[in-house]
Design a protein that fits this description.
This protein is mainly α. It is built from four helices and no strands.
Length: about 120
């Protein structure tokens, strides 16, 4: 029979080498992290550390590309309006923040988003 598995490890059995390597890396990282004195870091170094560590803690979201309107319509526009909890339009107040965010590169934008989410939770 073609495709019938007749040897090797059974499905779901962890790879011993991979497990051993992960354990050794974990011990190495743990020892290294314990020896780092974060209080000596500059603000920039602290932010960079948060940025790097967030990649391993916060899952990355898959990007999505949506087409709004039908292709026959040609170009379509979307208007986004920011409102506060009382329903008041605060778009003008947020326009400065939007301009600043639009000038950030992808890494900075991701970090800004992560930090904003952390501080607002």
């Amino acid at each position: 029979m073609k495709g019938l598995k007749t040897g090797g490890r059974s499905k779901g059995t962890p790879n011993k080498l991979t497990t051993e390597i992960k354990d050794k890396i974990s011990v190495l990282l743990s020892g290294t992290m314990d020896s780092i004195d974060i209080s000596t870091f500059t603000q920039t170094e602290k932010i960079k550390l948060i940025q790097v560590l967030c990649n391993y803690i916060v899952p990355k979201l898959q990007s999505a590309d949506y087409n709004i309107g039908s292709p026959a319509d040609g170009q379509s526009a979307v208007t986004i309006q920011f409102v506060d909890s009382a329903g008041n339009n605060i778009s003008e107040m947020k326009s400065k923040e939007i301009r600043q965010l639009s000038q950030l590169d992808t890494d900075d934008l991701g970090l800004a988003s992560d930090l904003n989410r952390i501080f607002n939770e």
